[in-house]
Amino acid sequence: MTSFTDLRLAEPLLKALNDEGYQTPTPIQAQAIPPVMEGRNLLGIAQTGTGKTAAFALPILHRLAADRRPAPRKGCRVLVLSPTRELCSQIADSFRAYGRHLGISVAVVFGGVGHRPQVQALARGVDVLVAAPGRLLDLMDQRAADISGTEIFVLDEADQMLDLGFVKPIRRIVSQLSHRRQNLFFSATMPREISGLADELLNDPVKVSVTPVSTTAERVRQRVIHIESGKKRALLAELLADPEMKRTLVFTRTKRGADRVARHLEGGGTKVAAIHGNKSQRQREIALEDFKRSRIDVLVATDIAARGIDVDLVSHVINYELPEVPEAYVHRIGRTARAGASGIAISLCDAEERDQLRAIERLTRQQIPHEDRRNDASIVADKTPPRRDDGERSSGPGRGQRRDGGNARNGHRGGGRHQEARREDGGRRDGEQRRHNGGEQRPRQNGNGAQHQNARGPRQHERSRDGQDGTALQDVGFLSRPAHGQNGRRDGDRAPKHSHAYRDNDNRAHHGRGHHRANQPSSGNERPRRPGLDRGGRNGGRPSREDRDAG
């Protein structure tokens, strides 16, 4: 077949195709459209960028135009399931573009946005509903969606949707559909284990395969650069300095990795944006629109952008990290060399990714050209310590370890108000530190005029109040903390039952010990208890219940 007119599509569809500039069907379209128009079940396999969306959208619109009827309330006549929000939006746009002269209603349902507009769109029913499985199940549980009257069911990117993580949602959705429906499965890859699961859901399907399983686009020039993991960012910046890289997609394995790469490139002056599952729907739409309109040169993405995102004139695809699943490599590099154009795919491979590279070469049945940039002195390794998943650096002292002379003990990292206080009283702190280093420890006057000896040594972490005369917080009010020597007790210990209350200032000046215990030998393990505020607000100890009874 040489044109769409040979497929005997409805005249409004041919007019819309002419408006879009489409004249000749692709191989998958030429083979899939006739059986779908006849109402047959179909399993279509074709690589990305070959027009799979039009292969099922055009015959579906033709059938809807030939059999006009109102859509069921809270339901749809055609249900299309897609794995990502971006692909849902793209499929819905294709239905609207091809059916612009038919008056077909199209709705999109996916997460990341409010429920109310989607519930309102489904209230009176729609002809075509494009949905992500998660949000559709939510609406079904709320009884805001009823898919029992669906006539045609389409599962796009069937290999990913029918992966082990999506089996239960798909089966649950299929169980609510009518048994007299038409089933269409389309995907770029179809491994054997996924094909067996698809055979269970499809009844006597027509199988259409225009390319071997998991073959890459012929017009994509591929190469692999072997590089150390710590030099990947520097090498990526070097590659992007090429003026020919006008519109480049960079793929990472994780969301945090995408953000880190984007920040690194942005720091070097590159116009870049990141897109992944943690971004809001609005942020993802803005990033894609800026990339399509060339407002940014680089789009860093996870594999959510590797499936079905149709961006014209992508010159290069860079795999900053190789995917864990070999099939994802086919989808990634399929973002370039679309609609007859050519493209370049570059993969950065470190020592830990050798197994993924071998799996990709086995799957695609080809040997990818290699380039070794290891031990290249012109590439400077990234000195930024790697970060853990919780965002903290993996190197350096951990929680509870000492750093900077004890200022970071017990989880204190020297930041916040404590760091500001150290800056404000820097002169006084320097003087005190010099006295500590020289072994000199001058007694200070406490609130009652008695001398208070600081015996904690140079590791004492003192904090001062703003505008005060240098009195440390530990000596003010209820924060008063007497130093302890060899025979003292640490703060917070309860006083023994035979001890007496602090009776005068002299007793408090001697490390908080009463006259009953002052003359007794100490074992060295006893510590002074924490004093409090007396009724007059002065620095003094509060008697315990036993002391009051004894008095």
Structural features, described:
There is one protein chain. The protein is built from 19 helices and 18 strands. With 551 residues, it is α/β, with parallel strands linked by helices. Strands 3-4-2-5-6-1-7 form a 7-stranded parallel β-sheet, with helices on both faces. Strands 10-11-9-12-13-8-14 form a 7-stranded parallel β-sheet, with helices on both faces. It has a two-stranded antiparallel sheet with strand order 15-16. Helix 2 packs parallel to helix 3, helix 3 packs across helix 4 and helix 13 crosses helix 14. The longest helix is centred in the first third of the chain and has 15 residues. The C terminus is likely disordered.
Features:
551 residues, 3 domains, 19 helices, Rossmann fold, disordered C terminus, alpha/beta, globular, 7-stranded parallel sheet
User: How many β strands by DSSP?
Assistant: 18
The domain count comes to 3
- The top level CATH class name of the largest domain: Alpha Beta
Estimate the strand proportion. 5-15%
Based on Cα principal axes, name the global outline.
Answer: globular
| CATH superfamily placement of the largest domain | P-loop containing nucleotide triphosphate hydrolases
